[in-house]
Amino acid sequence: MVYVLYGSDNFSLQERLNKLRSELGQGEMGLLNTQVIDGSSVSTETFASACQSAPFMSTKRLVIVEGLMGRFAPPQSSATRRSSSNAAKTAKLKLNTAASQPGQQEQISSPGSVEYRDKVKQKKSDWLPFVDIINNLPESTVLILVDGELKEGNTFLKSLSDRFQPEKFPPLKEPELSMWVEKSASKYGARLSPEVIKELIELIGSNLWVMDSELQKLSLYSDDGKVTMSHVDELVSYSRENNIFQLIDAILFRRLKKAQQLLRQLMNGGAESVYILFMLTREIRRMLLAKLASSGKILPVELARELKLLESNDLRIAAAKSRRYAMATLSEFYHRILKTDINIKTGKLSSQFALELLIAEICSESPSG
């Protein structure tokens, strides 16, 4: 049995994953027969071993692989990867630097060229062994492939679609978002008027993690379950001042226009660049920790201690975000943040321009690295 779950709505995806795990759960034996793998770096040998291992004192074995499909994203042209003017400026700076250092510039092949076709063939030779393993799973193995947003041209995904029915989780938009808020509120015993729902969406947006948390709080605060505008103003109004978390999400989900808008709001409201860089660094560090934890590697004592200090909800959110990026890409973000901090502190670039440049660089980065 194979399930394919992907999309940028990681809240709904995580709910679906939890439901599948619950349905397939077999008590304590279920924990012993569940393996989570970091697909962004797993070898075919390790993948095959996990999929073909027999269950221990049970009829089923569950294997969850995160980030495997996104790892084999199709090659992209420079025009596709630079879809915004700010991202284009960043690319121009890099090209100018490379031009002064012959041999340092990376050539990006255009679709239709011989180089491009060779890259596609190489990619195919990389992912075909994984598809063969998936197509020959033993009946005792249940495989769940989990990934973030994938390009329509992802041939790995297409090859799986021939046999399995992928489940896509795109970000919710109106009117589905309003329906989701109303349904989720009723789950917690709360009743919301259309005006309250509209206000919540304006304050929080489509971040379902935050929305779910606020709905739980509102349901507990209202005595009879009826949530009013005054409840929202009192308990959720902080969201207007808490755009930093929305900014971090916009950056890491590569929503450049939204990130630029939120950055301007924060800077105009007096937010310091050091605060914004600190919050971004903190989130990327959490993503790295979550990725290390999901890989099953033994962590150094200080990292393991830090991992235990994280709230389970924080770790779950970080893990969902980390699936979009390879470990090397997250590490590269660290270096870019450090460079931005140096440029600001030395006066080489203004705070706002340096942050805009950083955001453009991260948003133009391929999720799979």
Structural class: alpha/beta
Oligomer: single chain
The arrangement of helices and strands along the chain is EHHEHEHHHHEHEHEHHEHHHHHHHH
What is the assigned CATH homologous superfamily of the largest domain?
P-loop containing nucleotide triphosphate hydrolases
Number of domains: 3
Q: Report the portion of residues in β strands.
A: 5-15%
Outline: globular
Helix percentage: 55-70%
What is the fold's blueprint, element by element?
Elements: E1 2-6, H1 10-24, H2 28-32, E2 34-38, H3 44-52, E3 61-66, H4 68-71, H5 78-81, H6 85-99, H7 114-135, E4 141-147, H8 155-161, E5 167-168, H9 176-187, E6 191-192, H10 194-204, H11 208-221, E7 226-227, H12 229-235, H13 243-252, H14 256-268, H15 273-295, H16 301-309, H17 312-322, H18 327-345, H19 351-363
Parallel strand pairs: 1-4, 1-5, 2-3, 3-4, 6-7
Helix pairs in contact: 3-7, 6-19, 7-8, 9-10, 13-14, 14-19, 15-17, 15-18, 18-19
Describe the structure.
It is a single chain. The protein folds into 3 domains: 125 residues, Rossmann fold (3-Layer(aba) Sandwich), CATH 3.40.50.300; 65 residues, Helicase, Ruva Protein, domain 3 (Orthogonal Bundle); 121 residues, Zinc Finger, Delta Prime, domain 3, CATH 1.20.272. 60% of the residues lie in helices and 8% in strands. The chain is built from 19 helices and 7 strands. Helix 6 crosses helix 19, helix 7 packs parallel to helix 8 and helix 15 packs antiparallel against helix 18. The longest helix is centred in the last third of the chain and has 23 residues. It starts with a strand and ends in a 6-residue tail after the last helix.
